[in-house]
Specification:
Blueprint (H helix, E strand, L loop, with lengths): L2 H13 L1 H10 L4 H14 L8 H13 L9 E6 L2 E6 L1 H11 L4 E8 L3 E5 L2 E8 L10 E9 L5 E8 H10 L6 H5 L1 H14 L7 H7 L13 E2 L15 E2 L25 H8 L2 H9 L6 H14 L12 H16 L8 H18 L5 H19 L5 H15 L11
Antiparallel strand pairs: 1-2, 3-6, 4-5, 6-7, 8-9
Helix pairs in contact: 1-3, 2-4, 5-9, 10-11, 13-14, 13-15, 13-16, 14-15
Amino acid sequence: MNSLTTVEAGRLIDGLRVELEPLVLDSGKSFDRLRSVFMIAVQQNPDILKCSENSIKREISKCAADGLVPDNKEAAMIPYKGELQYQPMVQGIIKRMKELGGVFNIVCNLVFEKDVFTLDESDPDSLSHVSDRFATDRGKVVGGYVVFRDEHKRVMHLETMSIVDFENVRKASKAPDSPAWKNWTNEMYKKAVLRRGAKYISVNNDKIRALLERQDELFDFTPNRVVERTNPFTGEVIEGNATPSIENKQQPPMQQPRETQPAGSQQEPRQQRINNTGDGRASRKQERQPENKDAGNTQQTKTETKKDLVPPAVPEVDVFPADKAKAAEAAEKLLGVALLPDLDPRGRRGVLKQAAVDWKEATPAYTHPLLKACIDMSDWAIQQQVKEEAWAGEHAMFVHKIKSLLDVEKLNVGKYP
């Protein structure tokens, strides 16, 4: 690494010391170690410094918050089309789960064609995986598994996935051909089965939850495409609600003009525009009014707009006492998606879609109407954010109603009481 690169890398990381040091100290680490490992990472891959400065700062902050270092073992920093992507690795995830998640031992492996793998589905302890680690050719990957054990070495959960499952995960990614999937394919496979298995064990730690939710597709730099709203439980497309996805790159706060402005003009801040009208509510209604001379179409548009503004209601579902803890955990995860700080609306909807699938599998069928309502509320809140409309009050009230329905003291959603 030449002297200029060294200076630039040092300038970047040192400029973040005030922000990063509290994060690494909270994780029991030191800033100096994070700094030294980052410098080595840049030395091994100078393209890191060719990425945008904002993306470097954003991703190194995530790494620090997760309590990992970018040494290509615990985590990796991957340049992709001028942006930096942070990827927690399997070793790093396991390390942090053992440190913070109350898990004594985690074994996560891939199974190859020439390995000998046997399992009695009724007895997790019967798993046997025999392989020749020194073989030059073990064949292709055919699947993978993860086993979580508690302090008494009892199996907390065993999860298996086939190569078909792995490829389905890859296809569901917004960036299936990103460097993470191309260069770290086996690592991504192991990460997929690890994350899925972790959904079924009790992890009452916000740091572990955040770490497990890091996904490769969160930073998609491909062109915009249309994302249709779907029912997460049936896969049915809800007609008439297709909306253009939002390009996932660094943007200023959402102040997209609602009407075309002349070239060279400058848009007033939202609050200022509202105050200048003397009646903020009337101004917003006027901005949403479509330019349509056809009275019938205008009335229809008003009806659809009014319908979209109505938040979902909490269904009347009697949850058995034995299932309340799992239902509360699912509600926390699903409702918390609307509050994820590091993602734009498109990324949040991607996380919500995957979370819906995961929690459908992890909860009894009779609780699914309750989960669907939580999904609809998060989706509604995300849409309101895109339109710069109020949503937090309704979202908080919904969380309170779910808390009362499940008769729990608190739901860990944002900073709600």
